[in-house]
Amino acid sequence: MGRYIMGRAVQGLTSMFLVTIFVFGIVRLSGDPLQMLLPEEAPPEQYAEMKKLLYLDKPIVVQYWKWISRVVRGDLGTSTKLRIPVMELIGERLPNTLQLAAVAFAFTLTLGLAVGVYAAAWRGSVVDYVARGFAVMGQAAPSFWSGIIFILIFAVYLRWLPAGGKGGLSSIILPAFTLGWLPVAGVMRMTRSSMLEVLNSEYIKLARIKGVRETLVLWKHGFKNAALPVLTYTALIFIAMINGSVIIETVFAWPGIGRLVLEAVLNRDFPIVQAVVLMFSTWYILGNLFIDIGYAYLNPRIRY
Amino acid sequence: MNGLARIFRRGNASAEIAAAPAVMAARRRGFRFQFVPMVPGAIILLLLFTAIFANLLAPFSPVGTTLADSMTPPSWVEGGTTKYLLGTDLFGRDQISRLIFGARVSLSVSLTVIILGIGLGTTIGMISGFFAGKLDSFFMRVVDMNLSFPAILIAIVMAVVFGPSFRNVILIIVFVQWARVARIMRGESLALRTQDFVTLARVAGASNRRIIMRHILPNVFPTMLVLATLEVGSVILFEASLSFLGVGIPPPQPSWGVMVADGRGQIATGWWISLFPGACIFFTCLSMNSVGDWLRDRLDPRLRTL
């Protein structure tokens, strides 16, 4: 076990190192990093300042070392367009993204698990068919389009919910539902197939013979045993949602990290882009690491 | 077993013998309708046809603007004309013509990506699985890293750094896609390398290259085919997402993703601009996914967890 965790941790660190190389390298790949990092209209003093900051007259290894040691200390640079420290910008936007992801995640879990369990229990019923249709559609509908269609229906025609921006509680419903649709589909499918397997087993039959109430059979005897693969999957979803926010936040004009980074990319404001890519990749790698370790801990059969 | 024979094989032999009278009866009755794969298959064929003959089918130029006809609604809505069946966008471009040429863009991007990505992934996966050992763990580390990048963000950054163009979009999607393929193909070849027929081929003096080409490849071929079909949908979605965000196929080329983005600002006054291209993406992916699922159940049920 200890060896496995060590091995996975080293692997995670190697991944992190490669990500930093990528983030560091990408602005240098296409020629002059100054041209990449600064807006065209930047005054010469800003160029000189940036050149000094990046140690461009030193060898590339030194440049990387200087950059990474600043990053590790939490100094991610200053936005070249807005002239505000990147950390400040991220701190301002991050809570909005987390709120959106949390609501979508809660929605995914409740709907995905509940419908998945009953779709398996009532196999071939209307619930099962509707659930499967919903899942298949979620996997084919592009989220940016379904978001726009939801705006059309619920904001433009019915006028029930606001079309975008961040206001009261009602403003989070549409973006969270859109963000959650694809993961709901995934959780539902997984819960359903995992439950089908469990419901076929002898101990479920025994529980039923004993006369245990159906709800108890499903949730206590069935779901508890079917939950493991689903739970590891849901942990991945949370991370994927934070990444998927780029599209959803654009559609719904939600003031979060996703929109910040897209605007930064289009404005060629690279310090922000570097910081966000670095941050998202770190979460991604850490999340995967914890899932693998947790999974190995919970399921002794898994040993690589 | 020969790969191609496996593709055309249906079920196992004993079931086939047991079902033989029924099958004969069905053949005598002739054509039997099956919703999947026939309906989605027909949609895909129609799309291919549209994409190939786009310049003959489209009534107008996909990029030509007629500002006087800006925001004409579809023909069956009040204010619409039969000249523009599905209406026009803000610049007065005919929606149908753009959708038809958009099919060409979507399909050519996704088919090229699939050929390159599946080719690269399969090659690396087969080599990695077949030789195992150090080479394998090196390749698998690279795959792990590739999979730990947030795909859409990396793609956006690459698109901005390298500049959005048709070729770059293809290369970027291949870059984020090949690793998934490689991992699955590696698993397949890893299981095959210890099989008797591989050992016997080696005893007979076959070179590694010959074993991979003549014994491994035909056996992973059905998996490759299933993966290729299942990935088309996600590649189309990925291209559309990039184009929607403004870093994919550069305008004025009519990509479905760009068209949805064009209509976003006009959603209250011109719902048709976003609705139709999105519906095209939706039905294309739905068809591809269901044909892929069907093919998987026929050829390679072990892949069901995908």
DSSP, total strands of chain A: 0
Beta-strand percentage range of chain A: under 5%
Instruction: Assign the CATH architecture of the largest domain in chain A.
Output: Orthogonal Bundle
Helical stretch tally of chain A: 12
Instruction: State the total count of DSSP E strands of chain B.
Output: 0
Top CATH class of chain B: Mainly Alpha
Classification by helices and strands of chain A: mainly alpha
- The CATH homologous superfamily of the largest domain in chain A corresponds to MetI-like
**Low-confidence segments of chain B:** 1-19
CATH topology of chain B: MetI-like fold
End-to-end Cα distance of chain B, whole Å, is 24 Å
Integer count of domains of chain B: 1
Radius of gyration of chain A: 24 Å
Mean pLDDT rating of chain A: 82
Structural class of chain B: mainly alpha
The chain pair with the largest interface is: A-B, 46 and 43 residues
Q: Ends of chain A: how far apart?
A: 10 Å
Computed over alpha carbons, the radius of gyration of chain B is: 23 Å
The CATH homologous superfamily name of chain B equals MetI-like
Describe the structure.
Chain A has 304 residues and is an all-alpha fold. The N and C termini of chain A lie close together (10 Å). Chain A folds into 2 domains: 96 residues, no CATH class; 175 residues, Orthogonal Bundle (MetI-like fold). In chain A, helix 10 runs antiparallel to helix 12. By secondary structure, chain B is mainly α. Chain B has one domain: Orthogonal Bundle (MetI-like fold), CATH 1.10.3720.10. Chains A and B meet through helix 1, helix 6, helix 7, helix 10 and helix 11 of A and helix 7, helix 8, helix 11, helix 12 and helix 13 of B.
Please provide a brief summary of the model.
The complex is a heterodimer of chains A (304) and B (306). Chain A is mostly helical and 304 residues long.
Offer a few descriptive terms:
heterodimer, A: 304 residues, mainly alpha, MetI-like fold, 78% helix, B: 306 residues, 13 helices, 0% strand, elongated, disordered N terminus
